[in-house]
Amino acid sequence: TGVLPVALQNATKVIGLMHGAMKEYICVMRLHGEVSKKKLKETMKSFIGKIWQMPPKEAAVKRQLRQRHIYYLNIIEVDGKDVLFKVGCEGGTYIRVLCKDIGKKLGVGAHMEELRRTKSGMFDENEAVILQDLLDAYIFWKEDGYEKELRKYLRPMEDLLSHLPAIVIKDSAVDAICHGADLALPGVAQVDTGIKEGDIVVIKTLKGEAVAIAKALMTTRDIMEKDKGIAADIKRVLMKKGTYPPMWKKPR
Q1: Would you tell me the crossing angle of helices 95-106 and 37-45 to the nearest 10 degrees?
Q2: Burial 85-98 (b: 16+ CB within 10 A, else e)
Q3: Are 187 and 206 in contact (CB under 8 A)?
Q4: What is the 8-class DSSP label of residue 193?
Q5: Does the chain have fewer CB atoms within 10 Å around its N or its C terminus?
Q6: What is the pLDDT of residue 251?
Q7: Mean pLDDT (whole number) for 51-64
Q8: How far apart are CA 53 and CA 210, in angstroms?
Q9: DSSP label at residue 244
Q10: Is pLDDT at 252 greater than 60 in this prediction?
């Protein structure tokens, strides 16, 4: 249970990118034996950072060892053999497997008893909406044209992409990208730090509007220092053609 972002219309093109966004969970882990609080705290602390996981048998992915990042792992309460904790982790981390691995390292075994997602990317529980409230707001809009309540629950597509590094482009390059052209260096206005070749990035306008999803072909440093070349390979166009006026020469 917990936070589940839902995409509408054009935003469905990028909802898959949320799988890699940071997630936060509140979990109840049940230990299969008694351990001291000191040992429990030390053992759980050892799982912060890079870990290796094997997806469970019931997972809808290929079962192969893979690395994931645990950003924080905080014990909230211990009640007998039940451990309530909060974990912030890389998308694709299996908390069920994490509990099992913690129990194995403790030497007593453990399993996940309850789980609630409290954060997905930039969305947290404070922004979650009860489905009945959403349905009521939709009915008010559909029947009476009252859209204020419905708009409270809607967020721009750009919020789904906030975890991705960005390349900001000049207005003159926008329509060319919308027509499928790759991003050439002369069209770049700004670039986030830390971009590596092969990273998935979001291409934005100077106003912060999402134009496309792309694969970086250069590092941040290369983009800033070079004058010619292709900075990014466009993978998915998000903005409609003609949103910005064409400022490029079409082939005859």
Answers
A1: 130
A2: bebbbbbbbbbbbb
A3: no
A4: T
A5: C
A6: 53
A7: 80
A8: 34
A9: S
A10: no
Indicate the burial class of 6 (C-beta count within 10 angstroms; 0-12, 13-18, 19 or more): exposed
**pLDDT higher than threshold 70 for residue 181:** yes
Strand partners for 112: 29
Identify whether the C-beta of residue 25 lies closer than 8 Å to the C-beta of residue 90. Answer: no
Asked if the model's pLDDT at residue 36 lies above 80, the reply is: yes
Catalogue all structural domains in the chain, each as residue range(s) with its CATH number: 22-120 (3.30.70.3190), 164-237 (2.30.130.10)
Q: Which H helix or E strand runs over 101?
A: helix 95-106
**Paired residues of 204 in beta bridges:** 168, 210
Is the Cβ–Cβ distance between 65 and 45 less than 8 Å? no
pLDDT per position as a tens digit, 122-145 = 899 988 898 899 999 999 999 988
**What are the tokens at 122?**
């930039």
CA proximity to 113, closest of 125, 123, 105, 102:
102
Q: Is 150 within 8 Å of 138 (Cβ atoms)?
A: yes
Spatial separation of the C-alpha atoms in residues 10 and 161, rounded to whole Å: 13
Say what the pTM is. 0.80
